[in-house]
């Protein structure tokens, strides 16, 4: 089945492959909250 894969999906998949939680909120050194990936979902098909 064909589906659209967004840049955020690719980023989420990349972070997942590195063992980084892409859903976690991280904080900058000044305490500002940031998300690595906002709406991406891991794409298992990228990992064969």
Can you give keywords for this protein?
alpha+beta; 23% helix
Q: Output mean pLDDT.
A: 92
Strand order of the largest sheet: 1-2
State the helical fraction.
10-25%
Number of helices: 1
| Gyration radius, rounded | 12 Å
CA(first)-CA(last) distance: 15 Å
Shape: elongated
Order of helices and strands: HEE
Structural class, from helix and strand content? Answer: alpha+beta
Count the domains.
1
What is the count of β-strands? 2
Unreliable parts: none
Which band does the percent of strand residues land in?
A: 5-15%
Biggest sheet architecture = 2 strands, antiparallel
Give a structural overview.
- The protein is of the alpha+beta class and 48 residues long.
- It contains 1 helix and 2 strands, in the order αββ.
- The protein has one helix at residues 7-17, and strands at 25-27, 33-35.
- Strands 1-2 form a two-stranded antiparallel sheet.
- The longest helix has 11 residues, at 7-17.
- The chain is elongated, with a radius of gyration of 12 Å.
- The two termini are 15 Å apart.
Summarize the structure.
By secondary structure, the chain is of the alpha+beta class. The protein is built from 1 helix and 2 strands, in the order αββ.
């Amino acid at each position: 089945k064909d589906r659209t894969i967004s840049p955020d999906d690719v980023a989420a998949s990349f972070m997942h492959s590195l063992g980084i939680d892409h859903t976690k909120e991280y904080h900058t050194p000044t305490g500002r909250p940031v998300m690595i990936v906002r709406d991406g979902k891991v794409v298992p098909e990228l990992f064969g």
